[in-house]
Specification:
The protein is an alpha/beta fold. It has helices at about 20-25, 30-45, 55-65, 80-85, 85-90, 135-150; strands at about 5-10, 45-50, 70-75, 100, 125.
Length: about 160
């Protein structure tokens, strides 16, 4: 029986988490964060799919493949946050909640990091919470999907919107 799905997207350089600038991003790896996000989804009866790429087009393709198939998207776009207009356009085509996620708070860092091309599309934004932001972002995405589409919190296919 199909379950409800949250798509977690991780942008460029996030594969280096744990070793890249640990004073900013912490020492947990991307796999650690994905595991925490998956646990949060599973506790709610949902599945979580994850895709990481250093290439914007791969993330655009992942959004396209999620259209009509996943109920919500959580995206940590990395540097694409600030200039990833093709990712923005793909997300704009998605008819479901989008949660923007950042380990650090970009607004507290370099001025060029203050602009987000994702934020205008997001139903929620989680930033500056470190690894704790991953399960929180998943919970917000599921809550929004349940509220917006009546998707059940249990993964029970009988209540799945068609």
């Amino acid at each position: 029986m199909p379950r409800h799905v949250v798509l977690l997207l991780s942008g460029p350089n996030l594969n280096l988490l744990g070793t890249r600038q640990p004073e900013i991003y912490g020492t947990d790896t991307l796999l650690d964060h994905v595991r925490a996000a998956r646990r949060a989804a599973t506790e709610r009866g949902w599945d979580l799919e994850h895709r990481q790429s250093n290439h914007e087009g791969d993330l655009v393709d992942a959004v396209h493949s999620g259209i009509g198939r996943v109920e919500a998207i959580v995206v940590n776009p990395g540097a694409l946050t600030h200039y990833g207009w093709s990712l923005h356009d793909a997300l704009a085509a998605f008819d479901g909640p989008i949660v923007e996620l950042h380990l650090s708070e970009p607004r507290d860092r370099d001025p060029w990091r203050h602009l987000s091309v994702v934020e205008p599309l997001a139903s929620a934004r989680v930033a500056g919470e470190g690894g704790a932001g991953y399960p929180r972002a998943v919970a917000l995405a599921i809550d929004a999907a349940v509220a917006d589409a009546g998707a059940p919190d249990t993964g029970d296919d009988a209540d799945r919107p068609s």
